[in-house]
Please model this.
Amino acid sequence: MNIILLSGGSGKRLWPLSNDIRSKQFIKIFKTSDGDYESMVQRVYRQIKTVDPNATVTIATSKAQVSAIHNQLGENVGVSVEPCRRDTFPAIALATAYLHDVMGVPADESVVVCPVDPYVEEDYFEAIKKLCDQASKGEANLVLMGIEPTYPSEKYGYIIPKSDSETSEVESFKEKPDAKTAEEYISKGALWNGGVFAYKLNYVLNKAHELIDFTDYHDLFSKYDTLTKISFDYAVVENEPKIQVMRFSGEWKDLGTWNTLTESMDQPVIGDAVLNNTCEGVNVVNELNVPIICMGLKDVVVSASPEGILVSDKEQSSYIKPYVDKIDQQIMFAEKSWGSFRVLDVEEESLTIKVTLNPGHGMYYHSHMRRNEIWNVISGEGVVTLDGKKREVGVGDIIEMKAGTKHTVTAVTELKMIEVQLGREINVHDKKKFDVADR
Amino acid sequence: MNIILLSGGSGKRLWPLSNDIRSKQFIKIFKTSDGDYESMVQRVYRQIKTVDPNATVTIATSKAQVSAIHNQLGENVGVSVEPCRRDTFPAIALATAYLHDVMGVPADESVVVCPVDPYVEEDYFEAIKKLCDQASKGEANLVLMGIEPTYPSEKYGYIIPKSDSETSEVESFKEKPDAKTAEEYISKGALWNGGVFAYKLNYVLNKAHELIDFTDYHDLFSKYDTLTKISFDYAVVENEPKIQVMRFSGEWKDLGTWNTLTESMDQPVIGDAVLNNTCEGVNVVNELNVPIICMGLKDVVVSASPEGILVSDKEQSSYIKPYVDKIDQQIMFAEKSWGSFRVLDVEEESLTIKVTLNPGHGMYYHSHMRRNEIWNVISGEGVVTLDGKKREVGVGDIIEMKAGTKHTVTAVTELKMIEVQLGREINVHDKKKFDVADR
Model:
């Protein structure tokens, strides 16, 4: 099976766990059988690999998420990076070209496109495999998944099938309706549109060549910023007469808000927290290393991270976005491909950060114009390069870098450092990168 | 007026703002007219000095609070330090001897003893002045304040006066009653015992000499740990026939729990927090530098500090103590006489701390056996002494101290440093102090 996972969104609705560079799909919130926690993207990836160990998985995403994807899924997962946001048709065309031209998938094979963040069980990916197989038959150019509705939701688009058989041609598509209209649709046998569809690679490649002048993946990538913003629905689905839909009746949840997310938590508390016996329906997700005590609360979600603290009635939590939008905050924590960082202290003319590098990983070779930096190694071993000179470092070593010094560090074992930045204009944009070859 | 303020307790009931070394009286929670925040002890001290600018104020307390007292009230306030806890009679005897022998207050002057943490207005200290004046007359050996009850409280002891005049002899004392008994007392004209009483110094000094063999303050201090634990009520009040009570009917609150404390907050929020419009009766005290968002909460208190986070129904908040007792936590923040520190990061073999020294102040000259330390100066100027050698330091300077190195730093201007501690057994007790003369 070939599968493209669409990974988008900055996910402010799950603040303080999600932020501009950490989307909700990267939050480690689901307990695995061995007691660790995994994120939505890790859960989905694991489920796919369980259903089909040979699945070719490609994640279509923006530049900002690449580090987090490699940090969580390793280096072997395929990533199709959109150089900029150009809506779903260009994104799917680019990912399809990537599968064909980079991953070497033959043009007559089928692929399924699926959001990265549904909360599902393995039967969902079994159904996706069937979708792929159905697309391979060539009876239709597009095969959609139709999810059997459990209530007249106003949040989803609807698919009206021609028949009630497992696989049916599509009669029509309906935009998100009000509850009453949704009930009418459901009485006619309508299904939710979960944004999942399969096709043969050459079908979308041909559509792309019709609409865009390009030769291959690399050419499409290089001119991506010149493409017109257009949705896959508008560019392809609405004009396609040969569409089928396959029913899916298993568990399927869209965990977009704290309210729905907490419903899927196996236990009320993640992290260090105590709930007294007068708490009811309380969920806590605490990423800080200090305890939370909750007393006498009902249907409340509490979440604390280096970015902030949310305390909300569960119903109310759906309305969080405008409040988060108003917060103009520095990123306090991030996972990068090489490890992670956390801001420990912010002063007017200094910034103190804890940097953790994974074994074998290094930062970009870079310099700053307007700030000096000091590294205090607190654990592990590594190799530091300063203006071309290499030096082995370990616990207790101090590395001083004046503004202008080219520097990098590579971890031999897991390497932790306290980084002190000093200057009047400390800014993430004050960074010049150099080739690794220059080291 | 001479006044002894009794400052005790570790105050876990206002966790996470109070902890083993920061009692509730030091939490800056009351907005002053110039927009700053002051603590209970600062508020009370300011009120006393407004009512009587020449008042001699002595704070009777334990060693653990001395730094915080000087940090908040300056160096000029009198402090009578109990070398260990020995109940109220030894503590009051020691403070009285301190007033006489150290502060030079004549033995025939009167003094009033008062808890450090009542939430009151200036009329309370006017009443206290009258109590002092009444004690000076010598009509009685002890003059108590009786607070006119506003409801049949079960939390206070009661004083039954002989008459309903402003100053009356005491008929009897009653222990904390149940609500029904309290109603009976009140119908007989009983008053709350707020723990405030005045006497002439020589009265308590004589009682002390009767019960304890000592010459003066210094002698009493040196043998303090050998004294029997006994309360002032038991040792003095219960055996004293000549006792008067003076009525007080002004505002008086005991802010011992989050429920009562939040009632006295002038505004719902202290620190960085947003309440949406569906919140009712919500108070937030946020000492962290990240925002808190509250949505759809009713009668809830939220408090966040470097020690932890409390989210509690206001009523329930009175029952917090056992939950805090269960938390075995490192002190994450403290005010010292020389400034303050905050723990930024805890690892198995390292600890990272932000140290702020007030101008002109320095640490003890000290060394550690089992840990190396590094100071990264991030703002200000100071003078560092390492094994007797002095050195001026400023922003960007790095000071390395191997285990065994004697070290200290004195701030010239406000000095901020990131201190990295490295070692296998990092422990607050690994500290050897040296005389300043050794520097």
User: Anything to note?
Assistant: Chain A touches chain B through 60 residues (CB under 8 Å). Chain A has ten helices and 30 strands. Chain A has a mean pLDDT of 92.
